[in-house]
Write a structure and sequence with these properties.
This protein is of the alpha/beta class and 515 residues long. The protein is built from 14 helices and 27 strands.
Length: 515
């Protein structure tokens, strides 16, 4: 990153109150060097774990760069984490320091457990001198430090990132990524998928604290020498579209939820997104109807990508590769990603199995922190199994079926929830939806849909029947939702993924209470 022109704009930051800042690559690196010197002066050394909890601000980039240059291990953490979440991460990781936005420090201070390894609490002031007692002021830590710093020598296998997954049961798992992973990611995601050029203005909406932020806003943007647009306001579909137009965004990386809601926005034709040449989506499959809306309105094809916290991009609709409607796309490299059976053997074309990654893939995580056996338990032969199911056709295109535990078996039929969700999203009244198995005494399970309607509409029995007939018209009739419940919002993880497991549990409890 230090090889990019020093006077090139690295980041443009905008708040929801129209506050604006920008920084060049030269000044960004100088600030990172000052912080690296300050952190080193405190006594932090290569290999120390540092939990970082800051919002979408330029200082987030400074902190990550400083830590990596010093050889520290970054623990990305969302500002939405609470004392219990943070305490677990401190205890499990043995973190020596926490760098927190000052608004988030109260949650750290609420922790009752003793964490003797946690030697330094560093606060980033959200307002001048807004740092609580007992915390080191990051601004003061940087002030007066030299703006040159010789990066600590690191090996490709040295740990760079310790990312905690939002597991559905039990405590989160600590995913270990090495410095070598970062280089592999740059080659795979930023070039083959995002297709970032140095001249691009790139908006990747992920927030610091998630692996996806490291993927796109941080590594991909800075690694390619582009200019990143950073917006710290909350998601409002019209506002996002306005900003894309105003800042002439050329590469866009959004969540499926953001795309879905933008696609339902009134007056889409009023927005000029003619500068946009690359648009990608990741986190979960994006509905074909949404893709068609953006193609029709803006002549841009949103290209799906599939990956995990444990990897980088694995499968995607890569730039300059023909898009097959409804497909996840192709593997980033032939043979690295396969569909395997229970024995770890690749299955025949169009046979449903488990998505699996070859264990030698450079961008696959090294291990689960303090739990190396867990990774081995997910390995079958030469492959690491992701937990998602799909099929691959004769041409190498992957077709998503769902999570292992999302698959619905009804009267002997195997039904992927995404197929039903895809059909429902094609109806104009559906804003969002999630489909799960609902226990049924006769069929074992039936398909149930939880539906969020567009603003201003209320669910009725007539609308239930209309949506059921709509699904039957769009996909095989046996897949239609025999139950539909209208709700105001879907349960989601902090990173925006729909928690179908919560809906399934709700259905199981409802059956138990009846009996």
């Amino acid at each position: 990153m230090e090889n990019h022109p020093a006077d090139k704009t690295a980041l443009k930051w905008l708040s929801d109150h129209e506050e604006y800042e920008e920084v060049t690559y030269g000044n960004l690196m100088k600030q990172a060097n000052q912080l690296a010197n300050g952190l080193g002066g405190l006594g932090l050394v290569k290999g120390d774990r540092v939990l970082v909890m800051v919002p979408r601000r330029i200082i987030a980039y400074v902190i990550y760069l400083a830590c990596l240059k010093l050889g520290l291990v970054v623990i990305p953490s969302s500002e939405m984490l609470r004392a219990k979440d943070l305490s677990y991460r401190f205890g499990h990781s043995g973190a020596r320091a926490v760098i927190s936005w000052s608004d988030c420090t109260p949650e750290v201070d609420k922790i009752e457990e003793d964490h003797p390894s946690l030697a330094f609490r560093i606060a980033v002031p959200s307002h001048q001198n807004d740092v609580p007692e007992g915390w080191v002021n990051l601004d003061k830590l940087m002030n007066g430090q030299p703006d040159v710093f010789e990066a600590v020598q690191t090996h490709r296998d040295d740990t760079a990132i310790l990312a905690y997954t939002s597991g559905t049961t039990g405590n989160p798992k600590g995913v270990v990524h090495s410095h070598g992973w970062g280089y592999a990611h740059l080659r795979i995601a930023s070039i083959l998928w995002l297709d970032i050029q140095e001249s691009d203005m790139v908006w990747a909406t992920a927030a610091p604290g998630w692996q996806k932020w490291i993927w796109s806003p941080f590594l991909s943007v800075l690694g390619r020498g582009a200019t990143g647009f950073v917006y710290s306001g909350s998601f409002q579909p019209s506002r996002y579209l306005e900003l894309m137009q105003k800042y002439k965004i050329q590469v866009l990386c959004c969540t499926p939820t953001e795309y879905r809601i933008m696609a339902k926005t009134d007056g889409l034709h009023h927005f000029d997104l003619s500068n946009l040449r690359s648009a990608v989506s990741a986190g979960e499959p994006l509905n074909q109807e949404v893709i068609e809306v953006f193609k029709r309105q803006f002549d841009i094809t949103i290209r799906d990508g599939y990956g995990q916290t444990e990897s980088t991009l694995l499968i995607g609709n890569l730039m300059n590769t023909p898009v097959r409607s409804g497909s996840m796309g192709k593997a980033i490299s032939p043979g690295l990603i396969e569909i395997v059976d229970e024995s770890g053997r690749p299955v025949a074309p169009n046979e449903v199995g488990d998505i699996a990654v070859h264990v030698d893939m450079p961008a696959l995580f090294r291990t689960y922190y303090k739990d190396s056996e867990r990774k081995k338990s997910n390995e079958r032969g030469e492959f690491f199994v992701t937990g998602d199911r799909a099929r691959m056709d004769e041409d190498g295109y992957f077709w998503y079926e769902g999570r292992n535990d999302d698959i619905i078996i009804s009267s002997g039929y195997t039904i992927g929830p995404f197929e039903v969700e895809e059909a429902l999203m094609k109806h104009a009244v559906v804003k969002e939806c999630a489909v799960v198995a609902s226990p049924d005494e006769i069929r074992g399970s039936i398909v149930k849909a939880f539906v969020v309607l567009v603003d201003g509409l209320e669910g009725t029995k007539e609308l239930v029947r209309e949506l059921q007939h709509h699904v039957k018209a769009w996909t095989a009739p046996y897949k239609y939702p025999r139950k539909i419940e209208f709700i105001s919002s879907l349960p989601k993880t902090s990173s925006g993924k729909i928690r179908r497991v919560e809906l399934r549990e709700q259905e199981r409890k409802a059956l138990t209470s009846k009996n």
